[in-house]
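FAQ

Q: What does a record look like?
A: Structure on top, sequence underneath. For example:
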């Protein structure tokens, strides 16, 4: 089990990955408490999260690599814990609410996200293969 400072830094990284900006410290403390209470054994994907602390751009690709995995992983579980904390926070709940958009923009967004997901998945699998 990691110490509280390492978990706090992990929370900062995951929060920035999910919403694209620094998150409030009290939400990081909530994440630390949740991880300590959960107290599960870590799997090999924890090492990918640790590597992402040094190179934050890798987290997107590791996440994409395990998005379609049948097995539950520590990496994805921790991302979903932070996602739940952010979504329920009054600071960031508006980032998760649907906004009115023109149809053309929605179609373009869906297409560009699909291309990005496929690229991220392939790049993530390559990173996992090279680091395994």
């Amino acid at each position: 089990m990691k110490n509280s400072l390492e978990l706090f830094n992990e929370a900062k990284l995951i929060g920035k990955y999910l919403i694209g900006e620094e998150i409030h410290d009290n939400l990081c403390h909530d994440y630390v408490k949740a991880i300590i209470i959960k107290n599960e054994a870590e799997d090999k994907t924890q090492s990918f999260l640790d590597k992402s602390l040094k190179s934050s751009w890798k987290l997107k690709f590791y996440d994409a690599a395990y998005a379609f995995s049948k097995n539950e992983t520590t990496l994805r579980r921790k991302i979903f814990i932070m996602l739940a904390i952010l979504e329920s926070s009054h600071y960031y709940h508006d980032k998760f609410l649907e906004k009115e958009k023109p149809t053309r923009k929605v179609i373009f967004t869906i297409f560009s996200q699909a291309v990005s997901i496929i690229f991220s998945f392939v790049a993530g699998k390559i990173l996992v293969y090279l680091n395994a």
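Q: Is there anything notable about this one?
A: The first helix runs from residue 4 to 19.
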